[in-house]
Amino acid sequence: MSSIEFVQKMTRLSEQGVNFATATVVGTKGSSTGRIGFKILISNDGAIVHGNLGGGCSESVVVEQALEAIREGKPRTMSVLLEEEEKGGIGANCGGSMEIYIEPYVPESALVVFGGGGERSIAGPLVRMAKILNFNVTVVDPGASKEMYPEADVVIPEFADKAVNQIQFGRNTSIVIVTKHKYDEPSVRAVAGLNVPYIGLVSSYHRASALFKELIEKENLKVEDLKKIRVPIGIDIGAQSYEEIALSILAEIIKTLKGGTGRSISEYKGVYTRAKEDVAPKQIV
C-alpha cells in the first residue's frame, strides 16, 4: 500500500470538505488477516476509499465503527475477534484478533462573505459571530483590508470573479453575499453554480427578482442554480440591527448544515406542550 497515495486521497477529501476517517491496525494477537500498519480510508458514506485491513469481514465491522466516530467527532479503538460468530467473533476462523485505531476527520465549517463596508454593514458582525462559532472565515471585498475585518482568517481585496479561483469551496462551505447591491451581480454570477450547502443574498425580494431575471436573460445563468440562492436571507427573529440580522443569517446556516426545524424547542418539547402526553397539568404546576 502506497503511503503517498493514501495521504493524497486524504488531502483530496479534506479539500472537498468531506468528513472521513482512517482505521489503522495497531496490534495483533495470534493468527490474523491483517498486520500492524494496515489501514483503510473511509468516507462519510461508508465507502472504503483506499487501503485494506486484510479481509472484507473485518473491514465491514470497522466501517460501522468509523461512521459512528465521524458522527461523534471523536477517535476510538476497537478489537476485532477473528473467530466464528458463536464464539463472539466476526465470522472469520483465523483464531486471532486485531486492535484497530479509528480517527475521524471532520473538516472545519467555512464561511465566505462577499461583503462591503466592514463594521458599517452586516459583514462586520457576521464575521465576528462566525468566528465565535468556529467557522473559518474568508472575506471577499474589493475595498477591504485586514484592519476592516480583524477576525477574518483570510481577506481577499478582489472582485468576486477573480476571488473565487483563490478559494476552495467544499461541502462544509457556506456563502453570504452582503455587497450592498453594488457588487450583487458579479458576486451572484461567480457563485451561482457552486456545489455548496448554503448560498444567501442579503437583498429584498423585488430587487433580487429583477437581478435574477437579468442574469437569466443576459448572462444565461441557469434557473436551477439561482433557485439555490436564499433571498431574503436568514431566519425570522424580528431582526433589525446589523448584529441581529447577522445572528439570523448564522442561525439559518447552522440549521442548513446540521438540521433542525427553526422552531422554538419549547413549542414541541416544552413542559406544558408535552404535558398531555407525559403527565397531567396539575402535576407540573
Describe the model:
The chain has 285 residues and is an alpha/beta fold. The protein folds into two domains: 3-105, no CATH class; 110-258, NAD(P)-binding Rossmann-like Domain (Rossmann fold, 3-Layer(aba) Sandwich). It is built from ten helices and eleven strands. The chain has helices at residues 3-15, 56-72, 123-132, 160-163, 184-191, 205-219, 223-226, 242-258, 266-269, 275-278, and strands at 20-29, 39-43, 48-51, 76-81, 97-105, 110-115, 136-140, 154-156, 173-178, 198-201, 229-230. The chain has a six-stranded parallel β-sheet, sandwiched between helices. Helix 5 links the parallel strand 9 (173-178) and strand 10 (198-201).
Ordered list of secondary-structure elements with their pairings:
Blueprint: H1 3-15, E1 20-29, E2 39-43, E3 48-51, H2 56-72, E4 76-81, E5 97-105, E6 110-115, H3 123-132, E7 136-140, E8 154-156, H4 160-163, E9 173-178, H5 184-191, E10 198-201, H6 205-219, H7 223-226, E11 229-230, H8 242-258, H9 266-269, H10 275-278
Parallel strand pairs: 6-7, 6-9, 7-8, 9-10, 10-11
Antiparallel strand pairs: 1-2, 1-5, 2-3, 4-5
Helix pairs in contact: 3-8
Main features:
single chain, 285 residues, alpha/beta, Rossmann fold, 2 domains, six-stranded parallel β-sheet, five-stranded antiparallel β-sheet
Shape: elongated
Distance between the termini: 65 Å
CATH topology of the largest domain: the name is Rossmann fold
Give the amount of beta strand, in percent.
Answer: 15-25%
Total DSSP E strands: 11
The string of secondary-structure elements, in order, is HEEEHEEEHEEHEHEHHEHHH
Ranges where pLDDT stays below 50 over 5 or more residues in a row are none
What's the arrangement of strands in the largest beta sheet?
A: 8-7-6-9-10-11
Helical content class: 25-40%
- State the name of the first-level CATH class of the largest domain: Alpha Beta
Number of helices: 10
The CATH architecture of the largest domain is 3-Layer(aba) Sandwich
Structural class: alpha/beta
The largest pleated sheet is described as: 6 strands, parallel
Please give the domain count: 2
User: What's the CATH H-level superfamily name of the largest domain?
Assistant: NAD(P)-binding Rossmann-like Domain
Instruction: Evaluate the radius of gyration.
Output: 25 Å
**Nearest-integer average pLDDT:** 84
